[in-house]
Design a protein that fits this description.
Structural class: alpha/beta
Subcellular location: Cytoplasm
Distance between the termini: 21 Å
CATH topology of the largest domain: pyruvate-formate lyase- activating enzyme
Protein name: Coproporphyrinogen-III oxidase
Keywords: 4Fe-4S, Cytoplasm, Iron, Iron-sulfur, Metal-binding, Oxidoreductase, Porphyrin biosynthesis, S-adenosyl-L-methionine
Pathway: Porphyrin-containing compound metabolism; protoporphyrin-IX biosynthesis; protoporphyrinogen-IX from coproporphyrinogen-III (AdoMet route): step 1/1
Catalytic activity: coproporphyrinogen III + 2 S-adenosyl-L-methionine = protoporphyrinogen IX + 2 5'-deoxyadenosine + 2 L-methionine + 2 CO2
Number of domains: 2
Strand content: 15-25%
Oligomer: single chain
Helix content: 25-40%
Amino acid sequence: MPTADSLFRPDLLARYSTNGPRYTSYPTALQFREDFDAADYRHAAADAGAAQTDLSLYFHIPFCDTVCFYCGCNKVVTRNRARARPYLERLKRELALQAACFDTSRAVSQLHWGGGTPTFLSHDEMAELMAATREHFRLPPPAQADSPLDTQAEISIEVDPREASPRTIEHLRSLGFNRLSLGVQDFDPVVQRAINRIQPLDMTRSVMDAARANRFHSISVDLIYGLPHQSVASFERTLDMIVELAPDRLSVFGYAHMPQRFKMQRQMDPATLPSPDERVAILQRVVQRLTDAGYVYIGMDHFALPTDELARAQAQRTLHRNFQGYSTRAQCDLIGFGASSIGKVGDVYAQNATDLQRYAADIDAGQLAIRRGLRLTADDRLRGDIIIQLMCNLELRFDEFEATYGIRFTETFAPELDRLRGFEADGLVSMGNRKLEVNVAGRMLVRNVAMVFDRYLSAAAPLQQFSRTV
């Protein structure tokens, strides 16, 4: 297992820090085209059916009853719970519309509810949505924790501990959910007030205790560094609390301050944000504390206990990456439901209308809400595969790409390999005749390595629209 000292080179992190994609897709959503429509999507779904791969379903529930000032998600802030009902009815109609495009005998091996705050829905509404999903798609029924049925699909949900009681957690388990992702960000009260998210430790502990009592397979926690008033000392206290709670997975994201895009971020005083040097120092302590506590550094900003599926998948070279981040379920066709959701079916990306009214109008008209997307070129597929391999397995085996794509890797990518010579001189990568490896010192900069193979960035894509790589 890499040590914190070997992972962390402050001089290199500072030098390579820039804005760049997180590569939950390639090409990124910036390249989606508005001349792509529902007809293109239906053709892709028909073409993909022959492969009979499993399906992955993503549901976007956009509602939150309070706004977190740092958040850049597509959301609707309201305390009116009645607004969920018409949205739920449209999700049910969308399920029928999407099911008509697919062979629904295909197994669903992954389902995720994100937001927003999915637990904005009432218990009855959650049950209604899951019942409708099982009506149209082959999702395993709820099963006991020790039943083989309970391992057939990864069924996960994002939970806000501020509004999820132990009874809610028990209800989610009864619906078949077996994984939880909890937003925490920071336990420091000063930081919480600055970001408008008051969430004492006991709230989070209560949800985690309930999840363990109900035998959820995995609990993931999200933290954010770079928030107002954070310091190494203050975040150290948060890390101590997190280590005590012992979630199975951790995502520690760097805050992206883009007030020109996200108006709520203007509520935070930029003078209170940590300096670039302080951000790096906080990140260094994150790596040290979590690796000392026994977590495996997966890559980028993800950590997992050695017993977690994520760590095992990386060791077995079966780790994958999609719009939900790192995943153990590869080669699924992803279907997106709800406003702004993105799907990937075969060689096509498709995104629903981001505006709630446009989404509603499309569904009410009896049509899919797809408003933009992209059909991958042969070059997109090749480069996307390279980027996935780098992000997940931290290496490229040239012969695998040559066998799959019929290329000579070192000739096809001679300019990219030449650009990586500087990375090699800095000890971030090692290059041989038949292999490229991301070294331990380069793992925190794997996004930078991947960016070398991104054709759209070299075509002068606006980097400021992405978060910092460190």
